[in-house]
């Protein structure tokens, strides 16, 4: 198996949850629990994240190929696939390249387009984190808060810092690989392909990742799509409104 993953739930329909950049399978714990009666939930770590392998290539084509191999090797095709942010772009690329592996697609707060530069500060902060200087996690947290000015973002990023047996710290994610591929991750492979299965886009009302002007693009790639806006939610819709997100996913059954 090429991707580390967590499996939960007892439902008949297989559901694959794909996390976003800097996250891991652990970030879907709450949503997985809410969906466990209706689905058998598979939450893999994308390459260069969590407990999955490190690799210098992070194009959406290779990450979609990872996901295709995962679905085939676990024998769960056709599966419902849910992806957030980078995971959403990976899921869209899979739907466009291997549509037979999906029964439906849910995309959380991301569009199949190129985004302007963002996240450089966070990537640079992780890359320059002086792991050898810390004896306690709280020291790393204070360093990151001072660097970024946002305690919530600092704590989220530091979920990737793990303790070593010699009492030091290391990063689980491949920050060098992410840094070298950030331009690819902000982009999306453009083509004339389309996926004709059911697609649900969920966007946060307080997020700017899916704009009204993007709707024709969604229609071109995914003719059978609908979009739901959860007012008050930011880019992290599943974390802030997990019950509403779970209800929308159940609605696809």
Automatic annotation (TrEMBL):
GO terms for molecular function: hydrolase activity. Pfam families: Abhydrolase_1. Residues 14-239 form the AB hydrolase-1 domain. Keywords: Hydrolase. PANTHER family: PROTEIN ABHD11. This is AB hydrolase-1 domain-containing protein. The lineage of its organism: Bacteria, Pseudomonadati, Spirochaetota, Spirochaetia, Spirochaetales.
